[in-house]
């Protein structure tokens, strides 16, 4: 928006243009266009900016498997499940908490036992003890991994544990 909305003939004003790149990695193209009341020049292209915004350094988490389905025997007995956690980012991945979404079980509390650190390009395997479930109906529980990964979201990176067929 101009410093003024209307300019008289011969009058000048300063124009500042900012493009915030935060959270917008990749190629971009932006145009600055004036809209006028001049017949035949209702829209005037002033300039265009093109560029490539590099992604900020960050940790990126990837977990395999992302979903675990327990059969009837595993549902009744529980299961020790191995998860491979990879850091696909460019800075160390710091995992500070692993818990069920409803907080009924905490698998890792970094404040007590220390965080898990995974260097860029590295993978660590962890084992979690999945509790038995006595229900007969299909059910799902969500495991949240709280960490500094850009792709984890505010509540954490989630895994799904499925009890029974859906």
What characteristics describe this protein?
166 residues; mainly beta; Immunoglobulin-like; 2 domains; six-stranded mixed β-sheet; three-stranded antiparallel β-sheet; 2 helices; 46% strand; elongated
Description:
This protein has 166 residues and is mainly beta. 6% of the residues lie in helices and 46% in strands. A hairpin with a 7-residue loop joins strand 1 and strand 2. The model has no long low-confidence stretch (mean pLDDT 88). It has helices at residues 72-77, 110-113, and strands spanning 26-35, 43-53, 61-64, 67-70, 79-87, 93-100, 106-109, 116-118, 123-130, 139-147, 157-163. The chain is elongated and about 85 Å long. The chain folds into 2 domains: 1-54, no CATH class; 61-163, Immunoglobulin-like. The strands form 3 sheets. Strands 4, 6, 7, 8, 10 and 11 form a 6-stranded mixed sheet that branches.
CATH fold label of the largest domain: Immunoglobulin-like
Number of domains: 2
Low-pLDDT residue intervals, each spanning 5 or more residues: none
Distinct helical segment count: 2
- Mass-distribution shape: elongated
CATH architecture of the largest domain: Sandwich
Kindly report the average pLDDT value: 88
Number of strands: 11
Describe the structure concisely.
It is built from two helices and eleven strands. With 166 residues, it is mainly beta. The strands form three sheets. Strands 4, 6, 7, 8, 10 and 11 form a six-stranded mixed beta sheet that branches. Strands 3-5-9 form a three-stranded antiparallel beta sheet.
Topology:
Blueprint: E1 26-35, E2 43-53, E3 61-64, E4 67-70, H1 72-77, E5 79-87, E6 93-100, E7 106-109, H2 110-113, E8 116-118, E9 123-130, E10 139-147, E11 157-163
Parallel strand pairs: 4-11
Antiparallel strand pairs: 1-2, 3-5, 5-9, 6-7, 6-8, 6-10, 10-11
